[in-house]
Amino acid sequence: MRIVLKDLVKRFGSNVVLDRVSLDIQEGEMFFLLGPSGCGKTTVLRILAGFFDPDEGEVRFGGKKMNGVPPQDRNTALVFQNYAIWPHMSVYENVAYGLRVRQVPAAELDTRVKEALHQVRMDELGDRKPTTLSGGQQQRVALARAMVVCPNLLLFDEPLSNLDAKLRMEMREEIRRIHATIKQTSLYVTHDQEEALSLADRIGVMDRGRLQQVGTAREVYEKPANPFVAGFIGEVNLFAPDSATPLAEALGISPRETFGFRPENVRVEKAPAVAAAPAHATQTVDGQRVIPATVEHSVYLGSKVALRLVTDPAGGDSAARPQEIKAWHPEFIEAGTRVTFSIPPDKVLRWS
């Protein structure tokens, strides 16, 4: 079912929590709302669930206006971060609960519960109590319970935040697999950028009650609409206007622009051919502008090495002070090593 939010405003006292938020979630889409704590993303989820009504704006499910419709009449289902499953009921009964409330006939109930347990790979654990399950298994039960009622909208409220890193990765794969099978319209709220980048069909990035950008994972990562989005989605080197004049000039952009670049796009070379040049001089090697620097810090992370580079001083101008640069490199480079670095022009992020 297609879900449309139009110009939502929500206030708590004098605090504006949502400020003209509009979204169009397509049928079968896994849509993520991503942002820091307090940005308004959970308020959007609660409005969709019917727990809050917006002060202004409209909520539509499949073209039907839902403002004022109580939660029990919306046919939504939630997957919470704390599982919220009944400890005194078996896995089977937890999954069956929503169907019993809806007075689904016994034969149909049994078929749907078994199918839901099969989808989350819990076929053999229906008789178990939740207290005997791992955190990942309990979250699978919560997911099966939400899916079994065939909701118009499936809502995820930071469902993996209580799991350890390994289980989070496993559950991401499970959610991706299940969604690819059932294609259930879903809204997933999180502050975890990796979850969003790995699972979302599209992402909405929020800050202080406003949507900053909506797009695919690749769009918001490679073409962030503003410095906030760039800084929130992944790591980035960011420079305010007039804060890094020699670096900006070396990259061929105006020093008065806000600009940045991702660490993975910094190309680092050891023992540069320009080592004999003045310490602050930018040189051209094979048609590429390269900038001298020194490795200040180097951390081995397995699949990559995280470097912190410090550019050479450019005279005594305080506006041309050395800059710290985050770079990712495939090989370990000792601290103190002289290097040069460059950034492909098409990888420089710019905002006027």
Summarize this entry quickly:
The protein is an alpha+beta fold and 352 residues long.
CATH superfamily of the largest domain: P-loop containing nucleotide triphosphate hydrolases
The major sheet is characterized as: 6 strands, mixed
Number of strands: 19
Q: What letter string, H or E per element, gives the SSE order? A: EEEHEEEHHHEHEHEEHHEHEEEEEEEE
Shape: elongated
Give the averaged pLDDT, no decimals: 90
Quickly count the helices. Answer: 9
What share of residues is helical? 25-40%
> What is the highest CATH level, the class of the largest domain?
Alpha Beta
The unreliable regions are 274-280
Q: Strand order across the biggest sheet?
A: 6-7-8-3-9-10
Oligomer: single chain
Radius of gyration, in Å, reads: 25 Å
| Count of discrete structural domains | 2
Q: What class, by secondary structure content? A: alpha+beta
Beta-strand residue fraction: 25-35%
CATH topology-level name of the largest domain: Rossmann fold
Q: Report how far the terminal alpha carbons are from each other.
A: 39 Å
CATH architecture type of the largest domain: 3-Layer(aba) Sandwich
